[in-house]
Amino acid sequence: MCGIIGVVGNTCPTDHEWLTAGRDLMTHRGPDDAGEWWSHDGSVGLGHRRLAIIDLSSAGHQPMHDDSKALTIVFNGEIYNFADVRRELTLKGYRFRSNSDTEVILVAYREWGTECLSRLNGTFAFAIYDDRLHRIFMARDRAGEKPLFYSIAGGVLRFASELKGLMANPALKRRIDPMALDCYLAIGFVPGERCILQGINKLPPAHAMTFDLTQGTSRVWRYWTLPDLAISSARTPENSEEALVDRLETLLEDAVSRQMVADVPIGILLSGGVDSSLVTAMAVRAAPNVKTFTVRFPGYVRFDETEYARLISRHFGTTHLELDAGHASVDTLPLLARQFDEPMVDSSMIPTYLVSKLVREHCTVALGGDGGDELFGGYALHSRLLWTANLVRYVPSSLRHSISGAATTLLPVGFKGRVWLQGLETDFRHSLPVGVGHFDSPTRKRLLNTPGMWASSFDRTREERIPKSSDLLQRVTRMDFENYLPEDILVKVDRASMLNSLEVRAPLLDYRLIEFAFGSVPSSLKTTKTSRKVLLRRLATRLFPSTFDQRRKQGFSIPLVTWLRGGPWKAFFHEVLLRSDGSIFDRQTITELLAGAAHGRANGERLFALVMFELWRREYNVAA
């Protein structure tokens, strides 16, 4: 992976120092090489940090130009079908100077223009300056594995892989967007194009953008969407369960095979769960001497999956390494707050960072199992949602509304079952309950007891983003795929791995598997009230040893609730949230949350949300 940054404007911006500084703040994304290019009139500047994966020679240096010098690209990601696209372009008469996938994107754009996106299978965020049209073309991959932030002000476009790149600009006003903050406190991330800072946007997954230098205008559009579920009620050989398992195996085998291509050492992150174990099964078909890695956390037996990983490793004959992560120190939090420069709430970023740090000592690329839960219905919430929807059919809506209101009013934040009771008023025919929420609307209002800070926007934003489907499971898995996956899971993996200059790939997010999961797999083969990831488990039964426990579901987490009852974690949280120079959050509300945590209430992630936000705000000197 790499880091990209750029500035484009017909007013000939004098941003040379900012571009260089912003680029080098992302050195962790690309420690192997750095490049910078400016157009002859100074109206376009592009910067790049390189983590060399394909074609390690200087021929892969970026910014990269085509033969005519009319096109210039900066690119972050990997194109897994670049060899196929290259062959097609070669038949059309194009000649290549390197073996890099970067050059393939550049030539593909020259041949097909913005339609080149339909030809690319990979993870990417890139920008191409087209001197012929005096415009820049930017795009982000379908699932949103690679990030891209941008701002447009005064006829000038600035963009970067990480928000810290844009914040290197001393002229940038660092003010919190109250509507984004409301979303952050509610669900732990800022969805869609909005950013936690006013005046900054994210290019959403599966979107592209052009910016015209002459007019100073931009256009953003979605170039790919999830397919509708095309399932006939009649069972045919083509849509039988066995046929779907066969197709899943074929698609996954090809996706893993393509993602095993690299000119640097590569390994598999083997947790011992179904998803990463399936990736391992396919990896041994694609390459000899596959290396697998499992990380254990001494002293926390409940989070130790080494036994299951060993079973899979022995069965498939991998070279297996077990790494000790040691104890997670609270000192890691300021480091992660600086790296996750748009804050998000997921304490598993800590073990993800520790795992990435250890694995990077052995390889530069690692394949993982991300995406399986969103594509194939793997979360406990999915089964619970089906069970709840069936239950509430027999409960009058007025009674459900009263129960929900009573839970909000009478039960303290963090009380077990409170969020579930609040969700009972949901119209399960069209909407969705919040499910895993952090702070409800009344609590958010109390937390932001400062004029102008609270903007009640989350509920409206969320309703607008709920997919339109009569199938409840389709609705929730599509919601997860388009929101939780790109804004939490993939952000966590990208920032934590890139901080260690490790590239993590997700074969289950090959767009062909995504289209298969949402377009061909019926809900009954994803999740029922008693089973999850049904189709994936059918494939696992075919491939895994009979002693493999398929029903086990171990989340990648830390015992935060236990740590907050005493010791350094409790002391640190108190110091950050109750320090004398103040927090933007209401002190009384924070005190109540801390007291609840001390009594064992489930406030760990909630307090983590507030601590990480305050650490981030102070690190980057962001005004309320």
Question: What labels describe this entry?
Answer:
globular, six-stranded antiparallel sheet, alpha+beta, 624 residues, single chain
CATH-wise, what's the superfamily of the domain at 2-222? Aminohydrolase, N-terminal nucleophile (Ntn) domain
Distance between the termini: 33 Å
Low-confidence stretches: none
| Biggest sheet character | 6 strands, antiparallel
Helix tally? 23
| Secondary structure category | alpha+beta
CATH topology of the domain at 2-222: Glutamine Phosphoribosylpyrophosphate, subunit 1, domain 1
Oligomer: single chain
CATH architecture of the domain at 2-222: 4-Layer Sandwich
Can you count the beta strands?
Answer: 17
Q: Rough shape? A: globular
The radius of gyration is: 24 Å
The fraction of residues assigned to DSSP E strands is: 5-15%
Mean pLDDT: 91
The CATH class of the domain at 2-222 turns out to be: Alpha Beta
Query: Order of strands in the sheet with the most strands?
Result: 2-3-1-9-8-10
Helix content: 25-40%
Characterization of the model:
This protein is of the alpha+beta class and 624 residues long. Among the domains are: 2-222, Glutamine Phosphoribosylpyrophosphate, subunit 1, domain 1, CATH 3.60.20; 237-377 and 475-543, 3-Layer(aba) Sandwich (Rossmann fold), CATH 3.40.50. It is 40% helix and 15% strand. It has helices at 16-24, 82-91, 101-112, 163-167, 178-187, 241-259, 274-286, 306-316, 332-339, 349-359, 372-376, 380-392, 397-410, 418-422, 441-447, 458-465, 472-498, 511-519, 534-543, 560-563, 568-578, 587-598, 604-619; strands at 2-9, 33-38, 44-50, 64-65, 71-79, 122-130, 135-140, 149-153, 156-160, 201-202, 207-212, 217-222, 266-269, 291-296, 319-324, 365-367, 503-505. The protein has a six-stranded antiparallel beta sheet. Strands 4-5-6-7-11-12 form a six-stranded antiparallel beta sheet, covered by helices on one side. Helix 2 crosses helix 3. The protein is globular, with a radius of gyration of 24 Å. The two termini are 33 Å apart. The model has no long low-confidence stretch (mean pLDDT 91).
